[in-house]
Amino acid sequence: MRAAKRRAATADRALSRGSAASRSRRAAAPELLERVRRGDQGAVSRALTMVTDEYSGYEAVTRAFFPYHGGSRTIGLCGSPGSGKSSLVNALVARVRKDAETVAVLAVDPSSAYTGGAFLGDRIRVQEHALDEGVFFRSLATRGMVGGLNETIFAAIHVLQAYEAAKGKRGFDWIFIETVGTGQDEVEIVDVVDTVVCVTAPYQGDEFQAMKAGTMEIADVFAVNKADLEEVDKAVANIRDAMSLGPDAEEGAWVVPVHAVSARTKKGVEELLGSIVDHGRHLEETGKLLERRKRQLRKELSLLISRLITRSTLDRVTERHIDLLLDKKSDPLTLGRKLIRGGA
Amino acid sequence: MANKNAYRILIAKPGLDGHDRGAKVIVRSLRDAGFEVIYTGIRQTPEMIARTALQEDVDAVGLSLLSGAHMTLFPKVVDLLRKTGLDDVMVFGGGIIPEEDEAALRKSGVAAVFGPGTPTVRIAEFLKDALETGSWKSSPKKTAKKAAAKKKGRHARR
Question: Which of A34, A286, A310, B87 is least crowded, fewest Cβ atoms below 10 Å from its Cβ?
Protein backbone atom coordinates (compact mmCIF):
# COMPACT_ATOMS: atom_id res chain seq x y z
CA MET A 1 0.00 0.00 0.00
CA ARG A 2 2.75 2.39 0.96
CA ALA A 3 4.63 1.54 -2.18
CA ALA A 4 1.56 2.27 -4.26
CA LYS A 5 1.13 5.62 -2.54
CA ARG A 6 4.74 6.52 -3.11
CA ARG A 7 4.46 5.58 -6.77
CA ALA A 8 1.39 7.70 -7.17
CA ALA A 9 3.12 10.62 -5.46
CA THR A 10 6.07 10.41 -7.83
CA ALA A 11 3.76 10.20 -10.82
CA ASP A 12 1.71 13.13 -9.60
CA ARG A 13 4.65 15.41 -10.07
CA ALA A 14 3.68 15.48 -13.72
CA LEU A 15 6.48 13.99 -15.73
CA SER A 16 6.41 16.15 -18.75
CA ARG A 17 9.32 16.77 -21.02
CA GLY A 18 7.96 19.98 -22.43
CA SER A 19 10.02 21.82 -19.85
CA ALA A 20 13.18 23.86 -20.07
CA ALA A 21 15.51 20.90 -20.36
CA SER A 22 13.82 19.72 -23.51
CA ARG A 23 13.83 23.01 -25.33
CA SER A 24 16.55 21.80 -27.65
CA ARG A 25 14.20 19.09 -28.87
CA ARG A 26 12.03 21.55 -30.70
CA ALA A 27 12.84 22.22 -34.30
CA ALA A 28 11.39 24.47 -36.96
CA ALA A 29 9.09 22.87 -39.52
CA PRO A 30 10.83 23.83 -42.78
CA GLU A 31 14.21 22.68 -41.53
CA LEU A 32 12.83 19.39 -40.22
CA LEU A 33 10.97 18.69 -43.44
CA GLU A 34 14.02 19.43 -45.52
CA ARG A 35 16.16 17.07 -43.44
CA VAL A 36 13.55 14.30 -43.53
CA ARG A 37 13.36 14.69 -47.31
CA ARG A 38 17.11 14.20 -47.41
CA GLY A 39 16.77 10.86 -45.63
CA ASP A 40 18.04 12.04 -42.23
CA GLN A 41 16.66 9.56 -39.69
CA GLY A 42 17.57 11.80 -36.78
CA ALA A 43 15.20 14.38 -38.25
CA VAL A 44 12.51 11.71 -38.75
CA SER A 45 12.84 10.85 -35.08
CA ARG A 46 12.67 14.49 -33.96
CA ALA A 47 9.70 15.21 -36.23
CA LEU A 48 7.88 12.21 -34.73
CA THR A 49 8.52 13.63 -31.27
CA MET A 50 7.20 17.04 -32.34
CA VAL A 51 3.93 15.65 -33.67
CA THR A 52 3.33 13.03 -30.98
CA ASP A 53 4.33 15.18 -27.98
CA GLU A 54 2.81 18.34 -29.45
CA TYR A 55 5.52 20.75 -28.43
CA SER A 56 4.82 24.35 -29.24
CA GLY A 57 5.24 24.70 -32.96
CA TYR A 58 3.92 21.19 -33.66
CA GLU A 59 1.04 22.58 -35.71
CA ALA A 60 3.45 23.90 -38.33
CA VAL A 61 5.25 20.56 -38.42
CA THR A 62 2.02 18.60 -38.72
CA ARG A 63 0.87 20.86 -41.57
CA ALA A 64 4.21 20.68 -43.36
CA PHE A 65 4.18 16.88 -43.48
CA PHE A 66 0.51 16.36 -44.29
CA PRO A 67 0.83 16.79 -48.09
CA TYR A 68 2.97 13.66 -48.23
CA HIS A 69 0.08 11.39 -47.24
CA GLY A 70 -0.40 8.33 -49.42
CA GLY A 71 3.32 7.90 -50.00
CA SER A 72 3.87 4.37 -48.68
CA ARG A 73 2.10 1.04 -48.44
CA THR A 74 0.62 0.99 -44.95
CA ILE A 75 0.01 -2.34 -43.22
CA GLY A 76 -1.60 -2.75 -39.80
CA LEU A 77 -1.06 -5.75 -37.57
CA CYS A 78 -3.56 -6.46 -34.83
CA GLY A 79 -4.15 -9.37 -32.52
CA SER A 80 -4.28 -10.37 -28.90
CA PRO A 81 -1.31 -9.89 -26.54
CA GLY A 82 1.24 -12.62 -27.02
CA SER A 83 -0.02 -13.76 -30.42
CA GLY A 84 3.36 -12.81 -31.84
CA LYS A 85 2.74 -9.53 -33.65
CA SER A 86 6.19 -8.09 -32.96
CA SER A 87 7.94 -11.31 -33.89
CA LEU A 88 5.94 -11.46 -37.10
CA VAL A 89 6.83 -7.82 -37.86
CA ASN A 90 10.45 -8.85 -37.41
CA ALA A 91 10.02 -11.71 -39.89
CA LEU A 92 8.27 -9.44 -42.41
CA VAL A 93 10.94 -6.77 -42.04
CA ALA A 94 13.62 -9.38 -42.73
CA ARG A 95 11.71 -10.52 -45.82
CA VAL A 96 11.17 -7.07 -47.39
CA ARG A 97 14.78 -6.13 -46.69
CA LYS A 98 15.83 -9.09 -48.85
CA ASP A 99 14.33 -7.13 -51.76
CA ALA A 100 16.19 -4.00 -50.56
CA GLU A 101 12.91 -2.25 -49.80
CA THR A 102 12.87 0.26 -46.95
CA VAL A 103 10.55 -0.16 -43.99
CA ALA A 104 9.36 1.86 -41.02
CA VAL A 105 7.58 0.37 -38.02
CA LEU A 106 5.35 2.17 -35.54
CA ALA A 107 4.67 -0.12 -32.59
CA VAL A 108 2.08 0.85 -30.02
CA ASP A 109 2.05 -0.43 -26.44
CA PRO A 110 -0.31 0.57 -23.62
CA SER A 111 0.16 3.52 -21.27
CA SER A 112 -0.70 2.89 -17.64
CA ALA A 113 -4.12 4.23 -16.73
CA TYR A 114 -2.75 4.94 -13.25
CA THR A 115 0.61 6.62 -13.77
CA GLY A 116 0.75 7.48 -17.47
CA GLY A 117 3.96 5.47 -17.66
CA ALA A 118 4.51 2.72 -20.19
CA PHE A 119 6.77 -0.20 -20.93
CA LEU A 120 7.46 -0.16 -24.65
CA GLY A 121 8.78 -3.63 -25.33
CA ASP A 122 8.03 -4.40 -28.97
CA ARG A 123 11.51 -3.44 -29.98
CA ILE A 124 13.04 -6.44 -28.24
CA ARG A 125 11.83 -8.66 -31.12
CA VAL A 126 13.35 -6.62 -33.94
CA GLN A 127 16.76 -5.71 -32.55
CA GLU A 128 18.45 -7.87 -35.18
CA HIS A 129 17.64 -5.01 -37.57
CA ALA A 130 18.86 -2.29 -35.20
CA LEU A 131 21.86 -1.38 -37.34
CA ASP A 132 20.13 -1.63 -40.71
CA GLU A 133 19.85 1.84 -42.27
CA GLY A 134 16.86 0.69 -44.31
CA VAL A 135 14.78 0.08 -41.19
CA PHE A 136 13.32 2.70 -38.88
CA PHE A 137 11.52 1.59 -35.72
CA ARG A 138 9.62 3.78 -33.30
CA SER A 139 7.71 2.74 -30.18
CA LEU A 140 4.61 4.71 -29.21
CA ALA A 141 2.48 4.60 -26.07
CA THR A 142 -1.32 4.80 -26.34
CA ARG A 143 -1.40 7.82 -24.01
CA GLY A 144 -5.05 7.46 -23.17
CA MET A 145 -6.51 6.53 -26.53
CA VAL A 146 -8.72 3.45 -26.68
CA GLY A 147 -8.86 1.28 -29.77
CA GLY A 148 -5.29 0.08 -29.86
CA LEU A 149 -3.60 3.14 -31.33
CA ASN A 150 -2.15 6.51 -30.42
CA GLU A 151 -4.16 9.66 -31.19
CA THR A 152 -1.37 11.25 -33.17
CA ILE A 153 -0.84 8.16 -35.35
CA PHE A 154 -1.78 9.87 -38.60
CA ALA A 155 0.65 12.75 -38.11
CA ALA A 156 3.35 10.18 -37.35
CA ILE A 157 2.55 8.26 -40.52
CA HIS A 158 2.82 11.42 -42.65
CA VAL A 159 6.32 12.07 -41.30
CA LEU A 160 7.35 8.58 -42.46
CA GLN A 161 5.68 9.14 -45.83
CA ALA A 162 7.78 12.23 -46.46
CA TYR A 163 11.07 10.43 -45.84
CA GLU A 164 13.18 10.10 -48.95
CA ALA A 165 15.55 7.14 -48.87
CA ALA A 166 16.85 7.84 -52.37
CA LYS A 167 16.32 10.69 -54.79
CA GLY A 168 12.78 10.70 -56.09
CA LYS A 169 11.74 7.77 -53.92
CA ARG A 170 9.01 9.04 -51.67
CA GLY A 171 8.35 7.55 -48.26
CA PHE A 172 9.47 4.26 -46.82
CA ASP A 173 8.35 1.47 -49.18
CA TRP A 174 6.49 -0.09 -46.28
CA ILE A 175 5.02 1.25 -43.08
CA PHE A 176 4.02 -1.44 -40.57
CA ILE A 177 1.81 -0.38 -37.70
CA GLU A 178 1.55 -2.74 -34.78
CA THR A 179 -1.41 -2.02 -32.52
CA VAL A 180 -1.40 -2.80 -28.81
CA GLY A 181 -2.43 -6.33 -28.05
CA THR A 182 -6.12 -6.05 -28.74
CA GLY A 183 -9.12 -7.93 -27.47
CA GLN A 184 -12.31 -8.41 -29.38
CA ASP A 185 -13.36 -4.90 -30.20
CA GLU A 186 -10.40 -2.70 -31.13
CA VAL A 187 -11.02 -1.98 -34.78
CA GLU A 188 -9.60 1.55 -35.16
CA ILE A 189 -6.72 0.26 -37.26
CA VAL A 190 -9.06 -0.53 -40.17
CA ASP A 191 -9.50 3.21 -40.84
CA VAL A 192 -5.78 3.94 -40.61
CA VAL A 193 -4.02 1.56 -43.00
CA ASP A 194 -4.46 0.09 -46.49
CA THR A 195 -4.20 -3.54 -45.41
CA VAL A 196 -5.08 -5.11 -42.06
CA VAL A 197 -3.35 -8.32 -41.01
CA CYS A 198 -5.01 -10.06 -38.05
CA VAL A 199 -2.60 -12.20 -36.09
CA THR A 200 -3.87 -15.08 -34.04
CA ALA A 201 -2.39 -18.30 -32.74
CA PRO A 202 -3.41 -21.86 -31.89
CA TYR A 203 -5.34 -22.38 -28.63
CA GLN A 204 -6.95 -18.93 -28.88
CA GLY A 205 -10.52 -20.14 -29.15
CA ASP A 206 -12.80 -22.50 -31.02
CA GLU A 207 -14.99 -21.98 -34.06
CA PHE A 208 -17.46 -19.89 -32.06
CA GLN A 209 -14.80 -17.34 -31.18
CA ALA A 210 -14.03 -17.06 -34.88
CA MET A 211 -17.69 -16.27 -35.64
CA LYS A 212 -17.83 -13.13 -33.51
CA ALA A 213 -18.02 -9.54 -34.69
CA GLY A 214 -15.24 -7.08 -33.94
CA THR A 215 -11.60 -7.70 -34.77
CA MET A 216 -12.46 -10.90 -36.67
CA GLU A 217 -14.32 -8.77 -39.22
CA ILE A 218 -11.59 -6.33 -40.13
CA ALA A 219 -8.93 -8.69 -41.47
CA ASP A 220 -7.80 -8.42 -45.07
CA VAL A 221 -5.36 -11.22 -44.35
CA PHE A 222 -5.26 -13.71 -41.47
CA ALA A 223 -2.00 -14.93 -40.04
CA VAL A 224 -2.23 -17.87 -37.68
CA ASN A 225 1.14 -17.54 -36.02
CA LYS A 226 3.10 -20.18 -34.10
CA ALA A 227 2.55 -22.71 -36.88
CA ASP A 228 5.25 -24.75 -35.18
CA LEU A 229 2.60 -25.68 -32.59
CA GLU A 230 0.41 -28.75 -33.04
CA GLU A 231 -3.05 -27.23 -33.15
CA VAL A 232 -2.35 -24.81 -36.00
CA ASP A 233 -4.43 -26.70 -38.60
CA LYS A 234 -7.45 -26.58 -36.35
CA ALA A 235 -7.04 -22.83 -35.78
CA VAL A 236 -6.78 -22.21 -39.53
CA ALA A 237 -9.85 -24.41 -40.18
CA ASN A 238 -11.86 -22.58 -37.49
CA ILE A 239 -11.28 -19.23 -39.16
CA ARG A 240 -11.95 -20.56 -42.67
CA ASP A 241 -15.16 -22.24 -41.50
CA ALA A 242 -16.37 -19.11 -39.73
CA MET A 243 -15.81 -17.04 -42.85
CA SER A 244 -17.56 -19.54 -45.08
CA LEU A 245 -20.77 -18.99 -43.08
CA GLY A 246 -21.27 -15.55 -44.60
CA PRO A 247 -22.92 -14.78 -47.93
CA ASP A 248 -21.03 -15.92 -51.03
CA ALA A 249 -18.41 -13.45 -52.18
CA GLU A 250 -19.37 -11.28 -55.12
CA GLU A 251 -17.54 -11.70 -58.41
CA GLY A 252 -14.07 -10.20 -58.13
CA ALA A 253 -14.32 -9.52 -54.38
CA TRP A 254 -11.31 -10.02 -52.14
CA VAL A 255 -11.31 -13.44 -50.49
CA VAL A 256 -9.53 -13.15 -47.15
CA PRO A 257 -6.62 -15.59 -47.14
CA VAL A 258 -5.75 -17.49 -43.96
CA HIS A 259 -2.06 -18.33 -43.57
CA ALA A 260 -0.35 -20.57 -41.08
CA VAL A 261 2.95 -18.86 -40.31
CA SER A 262 5.76 -19.22 -37.84
CA ALA A 263 7.64 -16.08 -36.91
CA ARG A 264 10.18 -18.35 -35.27
CA THR A 265 11.00 -20.68 -38.16
CA LYS A 266 9.92 -18.13 -40.85
CA LYS A 267 7.65 -20.80 -42.36
CA GLY A 268 4.79 -19.21 -44.30
CA VAL A 269 6.19 -15.66 -44.11
CA GLU A 270 6.86 -15.60 -47.85
CA GLU A 271 3.21 -16.57 -48.56
CA LEU A 272 1.92 -14.04 -46.01
CA LEU A 273 3.83 -11.20 -47.66
CA GLY A 274 2.59 -12.49 -51.02
CA SER A 275 -1.01 -12.07 -49.84
CA ILE A 276 -0.27 -8.59 -48.50
CA VAL A 277 1.16 -7.60 -51.89
CA ASP A 278 -1.83 -9.20 -53.65
CA HIS A 279 -4.24 -7.26 -51.48
CA GLY A 280 -2.50 -4.01 -52.39
CA ARG A 281 -2.79 -4.89 -56.06
CA HIS A 282 -6.46 -5.79 -55.60
CA LEU A 283 -7.14 -2.39 -54.00
CA GLU A 284 -5.47 -0.60 -56.89
CA GLU A 285 -7.16 -2.60 -59.64
CA THR A 286 -10.64 -2.31 -58.20
CA GLY A 287 -10.40 1.37 -57.32
CA LYS A 288 -10.84 0.48 -53.67
CA LEU A 289 -7.54 2.06 -52.75
CA LEU A 290 -9.01 5.52 -53.30
CA GLU A 291 -11.98 4.49 -51.18
CA ARG A 292 -9.69 3.42 -48.35
CA ARG A 293 -7.56 6.54 -48.58
CA LYS A 294 -10.70 8.66 -48.30
CA ARG A 295 -11.81 6.61 -45.32
CA GLN A 296 -8.43 7.25 -43.71
CA LEU A 297 -8.68 11.00 -44.25
CA ARG A 298 -12.20 10.99 -42.81
CA LYS A 299 -10.89 9.19 -39.75
CA GLU A 300 -7.96 11.59 -39.41
CA LEU A 301 -10.31 14.54 -39.51
CA SER A 302 -12.78 13.03 -37.06
CA LEU A 303 -10.01 12.06 -34.64
CA LEU A 304 -8.73 15.60 -34.75
CA ILE A 305 -12.11 17.20 -34.25
CA SER A 306 -12.98 15.06 -31.25
CA ARG A 307 -9.51 15.66 -29.90
CA LEU A 308 -9.73 19.44 -30.20
CA ILE A 309 -13.18 19.53 -28.64
CA THR A 310 -12.46 17.00 -25.92
CA ARG A 311 -9.21 18.61 -24.94
CA SER A 312 -10.50 22.17 -24.79
CA THR A 313 -13.49 21.00 -22.77
CA LEU A 314 -11.62 18.71 -20.40
CA ASP A 315 -9.11 21.47 -19.69
CA ARG A 316 -11.93 23.48 -18.13
CA VAL A 317 -13.08 20.74 -15.74
CA THR A 318 -12.15 21.63 -12.16
CA GLU A 319 -12.67 20.23 -8.66
CA ARG A 320 -15.64 22.58 -8.38
CA HIS A 321 -17.46 20.69 -11.13
CA ILE A 322 -16.85 17.37 -9.42
CA ASP A 323 -18.15 18.86 -6.17
CA LEU A 324 -21.32 19.96 -7.96
CA LEU A 325 -21.88 16.33 -8.95
CA LEU A 326 -20.98 15.06 -5.48
CA ASP A 327 -23.51 17.41 -3.88
CA LYS A 328 -26.09 16.44 -6.53
CA LYS A 329 -26.42 20.08 -7.55
CA SER A 330 -25.90 19.12 -11.17
CA ASP A 331 -25.67 15.99 -13.27
CA PRO A 332 -23.08 14.86 -15.83
CA LEU A 333 -25.37 15.44 -18.81
CA THR A 334 -26.28 19.03 -17.90
CA LEU A 335 -22.76 19.89 -16.82
CA GLY A 336 -21.19 18.22 -19.83
CA ARG A 337 -23.35 20.13 -22.28
CA LYS A 338 -22.62 23.39 -20.49
CA LEU A 339 -18.87 22.76 -20.58
CA ILE A 340 -18.90 21.92 -24.29
CA ARG A 341 -20.73 25.19 -25.01
CA GLY A 342 -17.99 26.98 -23.12
CA GLY A 343 -19.99 27.72 -19.98
CA ALA A 344 -20.19 26.26 -16.44
CA MET B 1 -4.24 9.25 -16.89
CA ALA B 2 -2.97 10.37 -20.22
CA ASN B 3 0.54 11.71 -20.16
CA LYS B 4 0.95 13.80 -23.26
CA ASN B 5 4.67 14.02 -23.22
CA ALA B 6 6.20 11.67 -20.74
CA TYR B 7 9.97 11.47 -20.53
CA ARG B 8 11.24 8.58 -22.60
CA ILE B 9 14.00 6.41 -21.15
CA LEU B 10 15.95 3.65 -22.89
CA ILE B 11 17.19 0.91 -20.58
CA ALA B 12 19.92 -1.02 -22.31
CA LYS B 13 22.19 -3.90 -21.45
CA PRO B 14 25.51 -3.65 -23.27
CA GLY B 15 28.05 -6.43 -23.17
CA LEU B 16 27.77 -10.14 -22.79
CA ASP B 17 26.26 -10.89 -19.39
CA GLY B 18 22.71 -12.14 -19.58
CA HIS B 19 21.53 -11.15 -16.13
CA ASP B 20 18.77 -8.65 -16.69
CA ARG B 21 16.62 -8.92 -13.59
CA GLY B 22 18.08 -5.62 -12.38
CA ALA B 23 17.28 -3.96 -15.69
CA LYS B 24 13.73 -5.32 -15.53
CA VAL B 25 13.25 -3.98 -11.98
CA ILE B 26 14.34 -0.55 -13.20
CA VAL B 27 12.03 -0.75 -16.23
CA ARG B 28 9.11 -1.64 -14.00
CA SER B 29 9.81 1.04 -11.40
CA LEU B 30 10.25 3.80 -13.99
CA ARG B 31 7.05 2.72 -15.73
CA ASP B 32 5.28 2.99 -12.38
CA ALA B 33 6.81 6.43 -11.85
CA GLY B 34 5.22 7.71 -15.07
CA PHE B 35 8.06 7.31 -17.57
CA GLU B 36 7.78 5.72 -20.99
CA VAL B 37 10.46 3.05 -20.86
CA ILE B 38 11.96 1.20 -23.79
CA TYR B 39 13.90 -1.98 -23.14
CA THR B 40 15.73 -3.82 -25.88
CA GLY B 41 16.87 -7.03 -24.19
CA ILE B 42 20.31 -8.38 -23.41
CA ARG B 43 23.59 -8.26 -25.36
CA GLN B 44 23.32 -4.92 -27.11
CA THR B 45 26.34 -3.35 -28.77
CA PRO B 46 27.04 0.36 -28.15
CA GLU B 47 26.16 0.92 -31.83
CA MET B 48 22.75 -0.70 -31.38
CA ILE B 49 22.12 1.38 -28.27
CA ALA B 50 23.02 4.65 -30.00
CA ARG B 51 20.81 3.92 -33.00
CA THR B 52 17.91 2.88 -30.79
CA ALA B 53 18.29 6.12 -28.80
CA LEU B 54 18.21 8.06 -32.07
CA GLN B 55 15.10 6.37 -33.44
CA GLU B 56 13.19 6.50 -30.17
CA ASP B 57 14.28 10.09 -29.40
CA VAL B 58 14.81 9.28 -25.73
CA ASP B 59 15.72 11.76 -23.00
CA ALA B 60 18.04 9.40 -21.18
CA VAL B 61 19.81 6.06 -21.58
CA GLY B 62 20.25 3.80 -18.56
CA LEU B 63 22.98 1.19 -18.90
CA SER B 64 22.91 -1.95 -16.80
CA LEU B 65 26.04 -4.05 -16.63
CA LEU B 66 27.23 -6.82 -14.35
CA SER B 67 30.16 -8.25 -16.25
CA GLY B 68 32.81 -5.70 -15.28
CA ALA B 69 33.22 -4.19 -18.74
CA HIS B 70 31.67 -0.87 -17.73
CA MET B 71 34.89 1.12 -18.02
CA THR B 72 35.06 0.21 -21.71
CA LEU B 73 31.40 0.09 -22.67
CA PHE B 74 29.83 3.03 -20.79
CA PRO B 75 32.19 5.68 -22.23
CA LYS B 76 31.82 4.09 -25.67
CA VAL B 77 28.04 4.51 -25.53
CA VAL B 78 28.43 8.16 -24.43
CA ASP B 79 30.87 8.77 -27.30
CA LEU B 80 28.63 7.17 -29.90
CA LEU B 81 25.59 9.11 -28.71
CA ARG B 82 27.49 12.39 -29.03
CA LYS B 83 28.85 11.39 -32.45
CA THR B 84 25.28 10.61 -33.53
CA GLY B 85 24.41 14.18 -32.60
CA LEU B 86 22.51 13.26 -29.46
CA ASP B 87 24.07 15.87 -27.18
CA ASP B 88 20.93 16.19 -25.09
CA VAL B 89 20.61 12.54 -24.08
CA MET B 90 21.65 11.89 -20.50
CA VAL B 91 23.47 8.63 -19.72
CA PHE B 92 23.27 6.92 -16.33
CA GLY B 93 24.33 3.49 -15.24
CA GLY B 94 23.91 0.72 -12.73
CA GLY B 95 24.89 -2.82 -11.92
CA ILE B 96 28.03 -4.11 -10.27
CA ILE B 97 30.17 -0.99 -10.49
CA PRO B 98 33.02 -0.64 -7.93
CA GLU B 99 32.86 2.72 -6.13
CA GLU B 100 36.39 3.60 -7.23
CA ASP B 101 35.28 3.55 -10.87
CA GLU B 102 32.46 6.03 -10.43
CA ALA B 103 34.51 9.21 -10.61
CA ALA B 104 36.13 8.13 -13.88
CA LEU B 105 32.78 7.16 -15.34
CA ARG B 106 31.31 10.53 -14.42
CA LYS B 107 34.26 12.23 -16.02
CA SER B 108 33.56 10.35 -19.24
CA GLY B 109 30.03 11.71 -19.30
CA VAL B 110 27.98 9.26 -17.26
CA ALA B 111 25.70 11.50 -15.17
CA ALA B 112 25.14 9.09 -12.30
CA VAL B 113 25.83 5.54 -11.19
CA PHE B 114 23.42 3.57 -9.03
CA GLY B 115 24.65 0.48 -7.23
CA PRO B 116 22.77 -2.55 -5.89
CA GLY B 117 20.28 -1.71 -3.18
CA THR B 118 19.51 1.80 -4.43
CA PRO B 119 15.82 2.44 -3.73
CA THR B 120 14.16 2.59 -7.14
CA VAL B 121 12.21 5.68 -6.12
CA ARG B 122 15.52 7.52 -5.77
CA ILE B 123 16.45 6.73 -9.37
CA ALA B 124 13.09 8.04 -10.59
CA GLU B 125 13.54 11.20 -8.53
CA PHE B 126 17.06 11.69 -9.84
CA LEU B 127 15.93 11.32 -13.46
CA LYS B 128 13.06 13.68 -13.00
CA ASP B 129 15.21 16.37 -11.36
CA ALA B 130 18.09 16.04 -13.79
CA LEU B 131 15.91 16.06 -16.90
CA GLU B 132 13.69 18.85 -15.65
CA THR B 133 16.52 21.20 -14.71
CA GLY B 134 19.03 20.04 -17.30
CA SER B 135 21.57 20.16 -14.45
CA TRP B 136 23.50 17.17 -15.80
CA LYS B 137 24.32 19.18 -18.93
CA SER B 138 25.34 22.59 -17.65
CA SER B 139 27.43 21.54 -14.67
CA PRO B 140 28.40 17.91 -14.57
CA LYS B 141 30.37 18.53 -11.40
CA LYS B 142 27.30 19.71 -9.55
CA THR B 143 25.34 16.68 -10.66
CA ALA B 144 28.21 14.48 -9.54
CA LYS B 145 28.24 16.17 -6.15
CA LYS B 146 24.52 15.73 -5.79
CA ALA B 147 24.75 12.10 -6.72
CA ALA B 148 27.56 11.64 -4.23
CA ALA B 149 25.43 13.20 -1.50
CA LYS B 150 22.57 10.92 -2.38
CA LYS B 151 24.86 7.93 -2.49
CA LYS B 152 25.01 7.78 1.29
CA GLY B 153 22.08 5.42 1.59
CA ARG B 154 22.85 3.48 -1.52
CA HIS B 155 23.48 0.18 0.16
CA ALA B 156 20.28 0.30 2.15
CA ARG B 157 18.02 -2.54 1.13
CA ARG B 158 14.74 -1.71 -0.48
Answer: B87
